[in-house]
Design goal:
Blueprint: E1 2-5, H1 13-21, H2 23-26, E2 51-60, H3 64-72, E3 83-88, H4 103-112, H5 116-119, H6 135-142, E4 148-152, H7 155-159, H8 162-166, E5 172-175, H9 182-195, E6 200-206, H10 211-235, E7 239-247, H11 263-266, E8 267-272, H12 289-293, E9 296-297, H13 301-308, E10 330-338, E11 345-352, E12 359-363, E13 366-371, E14 377-380, E15 389-399, E16 402-412, E17 426-430, E18 444-448, E19 457-459, E20 472-476, E21 488-492, E22 502-510, E23 523-527, E24 538-544, E25 548-554, E26 558-565, E27 572-579, E28 584-591, E29 595-602, H14 605-608, E30 618-620, H15 628-632, E31 641-650, H16 656-665
Parallel strand pairs: 2-6, 2-7, 3-9, 4-5, 4-6
Antiparallel strand pairs: 1-5, 3-8, 7-8, 10-11, 11-14, 12-13, 12-15, 15-16, 17-31, 18-21, 19-20, 20-31, 21-30, 22-27, 22-31, 23-24, 23-30, 24-25, 25-26, 27-28, 28-29
Helix pairs in contact: 9-10
Length: 674
């Protein structure tokens, strides 16, 4: 044992006993025949001093299941009378916080209240030093006259604390790793610290042997430490002591520490001599990761100790990825996921209990939102990233007396704004945000071909990114009216869009499972022609086998922009541009998987005359007659559901850059309108 101490301790009882046994110590005049009278055992003085103190005991090895079994059989009496609940370690699987479920990384988490991405200890071996401040340094900073000590059976655990000794944050550090009876050494050293009234004592205990034998040995050591604490309280009855007992990792069914993210390896326990509201009282071992994350974690221990020791916490500088378990609410399962736009973070959390006041959310110490008590998620789409690249943030949630922090990381891509020119020449615009489709320009109507056909229905989620999410629109062509008519008719009030020399049509589209069916005759998506033949006058955008999109212009001949790839069940942006002056027919598909696709064909002046088609406007989810799918072939032209959003018509040619901005910005056009 190699103890390092800044405080030499108190005078032992050996010298006093020896002195009492010698006549010279008494200074009396008794003769040689005098009978020595034993001195009465002095009654220890009762101290009137109050104070808050803590004893943390880390047991290396026992799984929660093994502990439950030992308690049931009376082999873990040292933990009797404590509030015991399952807890977890190893960070959150698949996230920035994940770390091995082994002893040394968990010991570092106990000391710092952080996961390894912050404290820097990822392995059992190696020369890694703690990169985050410990509970000892936090206590010393807040109370310069406090005394702290630690004792451990493991040299690699002790090494992590030597910098705290050098910095003056830790008064006593006992290395018992070389002792033949290392566990007795730790119990003795830590017991002395308790007896001397150290403000914070941390004891790390390891025991060899089979799980049952090890637990019995460890429980005996805990009993000895608690007895030492009882002796201290007998002479210092006004002191308030918090005792926490925990373990750093779980074990598989064979009693082995695997280091993996398996639930049994992640499951630990926390026991307390005080009732801790956020620890919980349910003894059932969680069976799934989500159930486990709803429990306390090893990172909760440091803030719990510091709250008991009355160390003030500034939420704007909260430094722990756990929470103080004395809180009336339990903040759990906090996550941060990068948004599809790569420019936002979707945050979520759970709260056990009912918050009585608004929640405060901070990013890197700065308050970004005050939220209603029932809020369990937030979209942060105002990240302060100055350029593309990897960025890390720390979020803090405050709910009453409960505070929790968690990390986030994002490979940030600067969002593209909508081109402000998109309002120029806009002749019809349907956002589909209402109960029925309404043209925001007031220049057209969009209604079902037949009142008894499907009238469409709003969808709760659409193609937009971040906070711009709003309803989309679904048309179900399996619900038909008279003579099999389905779909919608778009009629413009002051002349058809095709009367213009130039025009653009664009909308978001999702095929919603149609690609899994035979589309040998094609399914119309947007059309103003009788599509009985591709050569009939007019325009059609149709879906074919293999999730292929074809843009067709016909009439005494035809041209086809074929071969566009669409991903089934994914939102894509489709656009058609007709320029009679340049005699070009251009199609655009922006697909999240297949990417950006552009095709342009020239057409003759004669073919250009057939652009208006039937002259009765366009149809959605049907051709210009509303009855193509019924009249052609039910097997080759199956009916189904099609989803639409942001249907817009312009009386000019939109540039590629403008269309790219629609797709990349991920926000609706109405955000450009005053």
């Amino acid at each position: 044992m190699n103890p390092t101490s800044r405080y030499p301790g108190v005078l032992g009882g050996g010298l006093l006993a020896a002195c009492l046994a010698l006549s010279g110590c008494g200074g009396g005049d008794d003769g040689p025949d005098a009978v020595a009278t034993p001195a009465p055992t002095p009654t220890p003085p009762i101290s009137d001093a109050a104070g808050r103190k803590a004893l943390v005991i880390d047991l290396d090895g026992p799984s929660y299941a093994a502990l439950q079994d030992a308690l049931a059989q009376g082999r873990a009496t040292g933990l009797d009378g404590l509030q015991i609940a399952p807890a977890w370690t190893g960070g959150r699987s698949g996230t920035l916080t994940e770390q091995p479920t082994t002893g040394r990384p968990s010991w570092a988490s106990l000391l710092t209240g952080q996961w390894s991405w912050r404290h820097g200890v990822n392995w059992e071996q190696g020369s890694a030093t703690l990169q985050a401040p410990t509970v000892f340094s936090a206590l010393r900073q807040a109370a310069t006259e406090s005394r702290s000590g630690a004792a451990s059976t493991q040299a690699l655990y002790v090494d992590l604390l030597r910098p705290d000794v050098d910095a003056g944050a830790l008064d006593t550090l006992a290395d018992c790793s070389a002792e033949a009876q290392a566990i007795d050494c730790v119990t003795r050293q830590a017991g002395d610290m308790v007896a001397q009234g150290y403000d914070l004592t941390v004891a790390q205990l390891s025991a060899p042997g089979a799980p049952a034998q090890a637990i019995a040995t460890l429980a005996t050591a805990v009993t000895r430490l608690r007895t030492q604490l009882d002796d201290r309280l007998a002479t210092h009855p006004k002191e308030s002591w918090l005792v926490l007992v925990t373990t750093g990792y779980g074990a598989d069914r064979y009693g082995s520490a695997t280091g993996t993210q398996a639930v049994d390896s992640k499951t630990t326990f926390i026991a307390s001599n005080a009732t801790l509201g956020a620890l919980g009282t349910d003894p059932a071992a969680p069976q799934t990761p989500d159930a486990l994350y709803a429990r306390a974690a090893i990172t909760d221990i440091a803030p719990t100790v510091l709250r008991h020791l009355a160390v003030p916490v500034d939420s704007s500088a909260y430094a722990f990825e756990g929470q103080a378990l004395q809180a009336s609410l339990a903040l759990r399962a906090a996550t941060a996921q990068a948004g599809a736009d790569k420019a936002s973070l979707a945050l979520s959390w759970q709260i056990e209990g009912t918050p009585a006041e608004a929640l405060r959310l901070l990013r890197d110490g700065q308050e970004i939102a005050v939220l209603p008590p029932e809020t369990r998620s937030y979209l942060d789409d105002a990240l302060p990233a100055a350029q593309d690249g990897r960025h890390a943030y720390r979020y803090t949630l405050v709910s009453g007396d409960a505070v929790m922090s968690w990390p986030a990381r994002i490979d940030f891509v600067t969002p593209m704004p909508l081109a402000t020119t998109l309002t120029n020449g806009l002749r019809s615009y349907y956002s589909f945000d209402g109960a029925t489709p309404v043209d925001a320009t007031g220049l057209s109507t969009l209604v079902p071909w037949d009142a008894s056909a499907d009238g469409g229905s709003a969808l709760p989620a659409d193609n937009f990114l971040g906070r711009w999410t709003s309803p989309a629109w679904r048309l179900d062509t399996t619900v038909v009216g008279a003579d099999g008519v389905a779909g919608y008719r778009l009629r413009q009030n002051a002349g058809d869009i095709t009367d213009n020399t130039q025009f653009t049509v664009g909308f978001w589209f999702r095929s919603n499972g149609l690609c899994a069916r035979s589309l040998s005759n094609g399914v119309p998506i947007f059309s103003n022609k009788n599509w009985h033949s591709g050569g009939n006058p007019g325009i059609t955008i149709g879906l074919w086998n293999g999730c292929e999109l074809r843009f067709n212009l016909g009439g005494s001949g035809r041209i086809d922009n074929s071969g566009h790839a669409l991903t089934d069940n994914q939102w894509a942006y489709l656009a058609l541009v007709v320029d009679r002056s340049a005699r070009t027919f251009t199609s655009y598909v922006f697909d999240p998987v297949k990417g950006q696709q552009i095709k342009s064909l020239a057409f003759s002046a004669a073919l250009g005359n057939f652009v208006p088609g039937l002259g009765t406007g366009f149809s959605l989810a049907e051709d210009g007659t509303g009855s193509y799918i019924t009249k052609e072939n039910n097997a080759g032209s199956p009916r189904g559901q099609m989803d639409f959003n942001e249907l817009a018509l312009w009386n000019r040619v939109l540039t590629e850059q403008e269309l790219v901005s629609i797709y990349r910005a991920g926000r609706p056009l109405h955000t450009l309108q005053p």
